[in-house]
Amino acid sequence: MNNPITLFDYNADWALKVGYLDPKPVPGYLTREEVIESYRALHVNGVEIREDYWGDCTTKYLRGITWEQSLPINSYLMPDQKVYRIRSSVGGDS
Predict the structure, then answer these.
(1) How far apart are CA 5 and CA 77, in angstroms?
(2) How many CA atoms lie within 13 A of 1 on its CB side?
C-alpha cells in the first residue's frame, strides 16, 4: 500500500520563534524555514501550507524553500479557510 504522508505547517506552531498563531508563554526555537527542513528529515511526501505563516513571502520564495527540501506543496490554506490544491511536481512551474 502506498499512502503518501503530508504535514501541515500548523503542526509546528508550538516550535516557531515568531509568527506563531497560538499564544504561548515563551517563543519556540525554529524559524518557519527550519520547520520545512525538519519535515524533510521526517521523510514526508509533501507539505500543506497556511497563508497565516507565509503570506508575507512571494510564491517564488516559498516554492524555492520547499523545492530545496524536495517537498511538493500539496495544498495552500487561505485565511478564509478555503483549501487550494496545487497539482505540480517538485520544482514545477504550475
Answers:
(1) 17
(2) 2
pLDDT, tens digit, 9 for 90 and up, residues 3-46: 778 888 888 888 989 888 888 898 899 999 999 999 999 989 99
Q: How many CA atoms lie within 13 A of 34 on its CB side?
A: 10
Question: What gap in Å lies between CA 17 and CA 29, rounded to an integer?
Answer: 5
> Would you list the domain boundaries of the chain?
6-85
CA triple 67-71-75, angle to 5 deg: 105
Q: What whole-number distance in Å separates Cα of residue 69 and Cα of residue 11?
A: 18
Global pTM reads 0.75
* pLDDT(64) > 90: yes
